[in-house]
């Protein structure tokens, strides 16, 4: 298919009225995905009302606008199921390998992969690239449990080698166990929501610096507020002040900036409790626990 056609179809779908299967009750746990209806494909992208809806879209809660070329490992994923579509984040870790959340790709029939984008509305943005994959390219963790989002990680294997550039780069995985406490500093990035009741995705990439939360207090919070048992392969960030990932950010990276200026993907955005704005901690798949599985099933090398 023509590149412009693929992008046009995806954003026409995004222009439809949003619905979500997520329960916004604070006592429920919620995957950080944003579901969009598979309708309204006959609308014209040039329609000013549609363009306004998209341009006024959303981002990471209380996030900052990124710079062009910043977070070049971040990937956008337009995921098409039989009767609906939705948007998630992903991370490029090898020339043909993207990591995302397993809950993002269950039942996917087609995935549009957006690499090197800053403004995802700019169809011909310099340094950007779009490709697509089918179900045969997706490998969820064999012990993924969708009812509780256990082992929430999947590999997307591309059919082509991606040419790296200033706007498209890979990121390293941790070589040892990740230690997270209340002083641990991380960065999250994506095109997800900024408010619970707003439009599905933002046009421009956003990011936020966020702190970790110790596992014991995070686990206790989820048990008390949602009757949800966290797992040892989860790590947690503090949502104080209403900051953190939201729907549309699922599958994106939790990144630690090292003392030498390099970056490491330590976590993968998975889920949170109800509203994104209540200041609840968010849960991530701990990448140090899945390093061996990723290496065995991809082209990733240190």
TrEMBL record:
What would be an example GO MF term here? serine-type endopeptidase activity
Which Pfam families did the record assign? Trypsin
Q: Peptidase S1 domain location, by residue? A: 60-299
Q: Biological process (GO) annotations?
A: proteolysis
Top-rank lineage group of the source organism: Eukaryota
Q: Which residues form the signal peptide?
A: 1-20
Q: What is this protein called?
A: Peptidase S1 domain-containing protein
Q: Which species?
A: Clastoptera arizonana
């Amino acid at each position: 298919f023509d590149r412009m056609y693929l992008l046009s179809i995806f954003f026409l779908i995004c222009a439809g009225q949003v619905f979500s299967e997520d329960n916004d009750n604070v006592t429920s746990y919620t995957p950080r995905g944003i579901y969009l209806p598979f309708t309204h494909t006959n609308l014209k992208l040039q329609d000013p009302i549609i363009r306004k809806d998209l341009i006024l879209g959303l981002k990471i809660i209380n996030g900052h606008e990124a710079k062009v070329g910043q977070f070049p490992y971040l990937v956008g994923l337009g995921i098409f199921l039989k009767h609906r579509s939705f948007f998630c984040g992903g991370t490029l870790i090898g020339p043909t390998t993207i990591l995302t959340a397993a809950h993002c790709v269950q039942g996917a029939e087609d995935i549009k992969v957006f690499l090197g984008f800053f403004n995802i509305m700019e169809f011909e943005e310099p340094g950007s690239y779009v490709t697509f994959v089918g179900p045969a390219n997706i490998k969820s963790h064999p012990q993924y449990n969708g009812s509780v989002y256990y082992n929430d990680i999947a590999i997307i294997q591309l059919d082509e080698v991606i040419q790296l550039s200033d706007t498209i780069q890979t990121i390293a995985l941790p070589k040892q166990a990740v230690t997270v406490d209340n002083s641990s500093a991380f960065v999250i990035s994506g095109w997800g929501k900024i408010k619970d009741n707003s439009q599905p995705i933002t046009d421009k990439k956003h990011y936020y610096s966020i702190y970790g939360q110790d596992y014991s207090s995070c686990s206790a919070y989820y048990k008390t507020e949602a009757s949800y048992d966290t797992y040892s392969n989860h790590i947690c960030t503090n949502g104080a002040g209403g900051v953190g990932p939201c729907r549309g950010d699922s599958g994106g990276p939790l990144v630690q900036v090292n003392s030498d200026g390099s970056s490491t993907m330590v976590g993968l955005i998975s889920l949170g409790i109800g509203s994104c704005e209540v200041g609840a901690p968010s849960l991530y798949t701990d990448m140090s626990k899945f390093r061996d599985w990723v290496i065995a099933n991809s082209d990733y090398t240190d």
